[in-house]
Recover the amino acids of this structure.
């Protein structure tokens, strides 16, 4: 399984990394993101949305749980679901919030924050992004990006 | 005209009965189940709309001593929100409407908050500035009528309520973080730490609270790697609260002045914060602006505000405006963005 490592030192660099990462994405892809509070998950997703020319402001879905944005994939309209499982306590809530319907949408890109809370419900072939805050430099963020088995 | 209102856009299942702008009943699931079972029942408290909706609607009718046959219109939140949650409320409303031949009026949840200050304060005159500040939203609106308003600013990352909750989490406090920070802050020194007031001089009406989270995290890691004692905790809470409230107050007051608004109406769950209410009252009074914040039951997500607005819309519009039942997850879009 292929894993790439990247390091960023500012919010701007994290957004840039998200934008660069998005180049390999296509409709239907799921990106599962893990990382502690303030590690830059939302900033990384801002970068992904920037690449797909989303005009709306990308905000944290912690309370709204799922944000939907409209972007472009080539000439086609692209939906991006920005999902945040931070407030989810039990797996039986996935149905209530519409997570399963969301993940099944083959025409959309699905980005999930706090994805570790939903392990077991994702298909195998997804992107996994793990963000670690540094103990050395408070602005440093380490990204481990794991590619799908068969992209 | 009696209106049955239903709200299921996110966590709360709520139903209310409104007649001539008066709230006859307003039942909110978390409060209802809390009083019924003497504690919040987790599976029933959040987003269990399908399980709760019949009980909540029946209860709203009973408390208002009303029968479904007296209802002239059903108002229901159709946007924005969680699609799975919205659909439960909207389909329930449609089913009820079909069975009893009652028209269904779709209402926008954020608009409900925008006008919620008028439920208890009918004297508010248009135009006014409205700040909707909750866990999910932080947005400023210029409100011209019941049918016309304009978004003038919004958070570009985290909502203010989220900033309260996540910094509380970083401090090891429980959930919900807002009321806990408010409580601890009462004994603390708000000038103990000078946390960032992001975008305070940005020249627009947008907000950013994401950096505060990181600032608090870095501050604790650097100065108190082994944890904070209770005294220091009160100071940090007071400093966090001061930073969040400062930005909200300054931006909203600036907007009220720029738009010559005589009223400043603050709604949404965060408007329950005691420092926020105090500072808004002070700073508004100083400038001859009337500050209004609804009671807590109209600040949180509730159906009364949905029914209240529906009645105004029905009076101010024609039935043609209510032909389409639209679902959308989108909150709002900045015009010039």
């Amino acid at each position: 399984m292929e894993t790439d490592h990247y390091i960023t030192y500012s919010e701007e660099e994290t957004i840039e990394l998200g934008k660069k990462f998005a180049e390999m994405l296509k409709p239907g892809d799921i990106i599962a993101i893990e990382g502690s509070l303030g590690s830059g998950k939302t900033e990384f997703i801002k970068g992904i949305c920037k690449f797909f020319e989303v005009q709306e402001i990308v905000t944290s879905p912690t309370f709204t749980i799922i944000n939907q944005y409209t972007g472009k994939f080539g000439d086609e309209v692209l939906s991006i679901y920005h999902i945040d499982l931070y407030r989810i306590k039990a797996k039986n809530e996935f149905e209530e919030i519409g997570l399963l319907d969301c993940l099944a949408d083959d025409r959309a890109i699905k980005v999930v924050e706090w994805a570790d809370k939903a392990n077991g419900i994702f298909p195998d072939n997804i992107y996994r992004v793990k963000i670690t805050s540094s103990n050395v430099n408070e602005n440093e963020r380490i990204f481990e990006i794991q590619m799908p088995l068969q992209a | 005209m009696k209106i049955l209102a239903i709200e299921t856009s996110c966590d709360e299942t709520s139903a209310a009965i409104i007649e001539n702008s008066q709230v006859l009943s307003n039942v909110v699931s978390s409060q209802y189940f809390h009083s019924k079972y003497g504690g919040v029942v987790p599976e029933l408290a959040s987003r269990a709309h399908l399980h709760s909706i019949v009980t909540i609607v029946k209860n709203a009718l009973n408390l208002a001593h009303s029968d479904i046959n007296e209802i002239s219109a059903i108002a229901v939140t159709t946007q924005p929100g969680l699609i799975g949650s919205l659909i439960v409320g909207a389909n329930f409303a449609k089913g009820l409407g079909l069975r009893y031949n009652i028209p269904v009026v779709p209402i926008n949840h954020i608009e409900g908050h925008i006008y919620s200050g008028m439920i208890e304060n009918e004297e508010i005159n248009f135009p006014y500035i409205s700040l909707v500040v909750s866990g999910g939203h932080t947005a400023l609106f210029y409100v011209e009528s019941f049918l016309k308003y304009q978004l003038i600013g919004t958070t570009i990352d985290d909502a203010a309520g989220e900033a309260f909750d996540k910094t509380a989490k970083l401090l090891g406090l429980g959930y919900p973080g807002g009321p806990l920070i408010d409580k601890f802050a009462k004994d603390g020194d708000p000038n103990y730490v000078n946390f960032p007031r992001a975008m305070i001089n940005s020249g627009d009406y947008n907000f950013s609270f994401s950096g505060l989270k990181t600032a608090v995290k870095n501050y604790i890691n650097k100065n108190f790697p082994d944890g904070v004692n209770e005294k220091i905790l009160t100071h940090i809470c007071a400093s966090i609260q001061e930073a969040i409230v400062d930005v909200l107050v300054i931006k909203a007051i600036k907007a009220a002045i720029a738009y010559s608004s005589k009223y400043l109406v603050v709604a949404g769950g965060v408007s329950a914060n005691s420092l926020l209410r105090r500072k808004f009252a002070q700073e508004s009074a100083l400038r001859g602006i009337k500050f209004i914040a609804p009671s807590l039951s109209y600040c949180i997500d509730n159906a009364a505000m949905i029914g209240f607005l529906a009645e105004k819309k029905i009076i101010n519009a024609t039935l043609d405006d209510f032909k389409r039942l639209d679902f959308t997850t989108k909150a709002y879009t900045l015009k010039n963005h």
